[in-house]
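task queued by scheduler; priority normal; single chain, no ligands, no partner chains; default sampling; output format set to C-alpha cells
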Amino acid sequence: MWNPASRCCFLLSVVCFVLFSTCAMAQTGTSSVRGAILDKSGASVAGASIQLTDNELGIERTAISDNSGTYEFLSLQPGRYSLKVQAAGFRPYEQKNIDRKSVV
C-alpha cells in the first residue's frame, strides 16, 4: 500500500516527533532549595530536621542537615513553599511563602 520512500518518510517523522517531544518534556523547569542550619554563634547544627511543603499541592519533603549543617531539596516544581526546621535544644523555625520559580 505504501511505497518504500513513503514508509521511510513516515517512520522518520514518527522518530523525530518522539525525540523532540522527549526533549520538550526535559525542558520543564525545576528549582531547588539549599541552605545551612547555623546557631547564633555561626556553628553548624547537624541532624536538624527540615520539612519543605508545597503550599498549593500539600506535598511534603524532608531532609536532615549533614555534619556541616547543610541540606538541599532538588527538582522542585515552581510554586510557593513553606520551610520548617527543628533541632534538639533549639526553638522550631518556620519560613512561609518561599517563591521558587522555574530554572531552565
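post-processing summary
- Residues 16 and 22 are 10 Å apart (CA to CA).
- The first helix runs from residue 4 to 26.
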